[in-house]
Predict the 3D structure of the following.
Amino acid sequence: MSVIDDLAAEFAKLPGIGRKTALRLTYHLLKQSPEQSRQLAGALEALVARVRRCSVCNNLTEQDPCALCADPRRDHTVLCVVEDASDIGAIERAGEFRGLYHVLGGRLSPLDGVGPEDLAVQSLVDRVSKGAGAGGSEGAIREVILATNPSMEGEATALYVQRQLAGHVPTVSRIARGIPVGGDLEYADGVTIAQAISARREM
Amino acid sequence: MSVIDDLAAEFAKLPGIGRKTALRLTYHLLKQSPEQSRQLAGALEALVARVRRCSVCNNLTEQDPCALCADPRRDHTVLCVVEDASDIGAIERAGEFRGLYHVLGGRLSPLDGVGPEDLAVQSLVDRVSKGAGAGGSEGAIREVILATNPSMEGEATALYVQRQLAGHVPTVSRIARGIPVGGDLEYADGVTIAQAISARREM
């Protein structure tokens, strides 16, 4: 194996990158200045060396507690529970939520061997029981929003987490499912349309 | 900028990788063992440190002359001229050609500022004039196959190279253009169909 094949093989391990794309990326880097390859290599090594889990919310971070948990301007009485740290970025970009997060680190999926003990559910219950935020000095949590994906596993996970939280927090809510904004009824699947109708609101 | 954003920004510099895909790749690596990120970083650094140009054929290689030029079982009297080193892999996988290569390092493209002096044409003429292979010990080259892409620039490049080679080699040929194997006349463009018809062969 040459170093060209080595690098292509490493690229091909990434999701959505096949053998041909991996080779194309490798040849692209060979055409660029060596600096670009070094920067990519350096960013990879910095990632491995510096990213860890926030001890409060389980988010991926370089500082502990993470920037979100440490931010006094955020609402420390509302938690949004997500499957993965990458979901936080999507919700932050939407700009609607100003509370804190809790990252489960996956979803219940018996077929993949992921059970309740593999998710950060107990730490969520502990956190809710003793108050939110770093050190729990911010007082009681009044709402937990379950923002797991609206898939079969995500729904099962939300249901499981809701049961674990029963009695520990006044309100447990679930993000709304319906027709996406800008979407088209004609192209929506039946289950989504049924959800959109049953969750209709008076205008 | 966090190291997560840094790595995503580096990924997003690669062709065909947008901002969302770059983030997905980064989070994928965070879920994997650190070893995978380190292997990718190591492969990148090995690429920069060890890959250079073959002094005979201009191919990308770790040894000079490259493995192809140094292989005595290949036919050193036929040269296949390609635009980029990545084209060699495609031709080798096809398994039809057993001669040697010559990499031009691009194609004539006045709009991109690529002129004849930017391509390895003179080294091709020198190589053909004094015999093929490493050191030229294998005797005269009897055929040069022009395998630049059948695009406007590729055709112009082939024409230019053919003129430079005139008188130096008995045969200069061009790869066939036509309907791709497994392709469908219905979906082929008019120029390709015209080529396929004018280059028809008796059965």
Notes: Residues 131 and 140 of chain A are 4 Å apart (CA to CA). Residues 132-137 of chain A have pLDDT under 50 and may be disordered. Chain A has two domains: 3-50, 60-202. The radius of gyration of chain A is 21 Å.
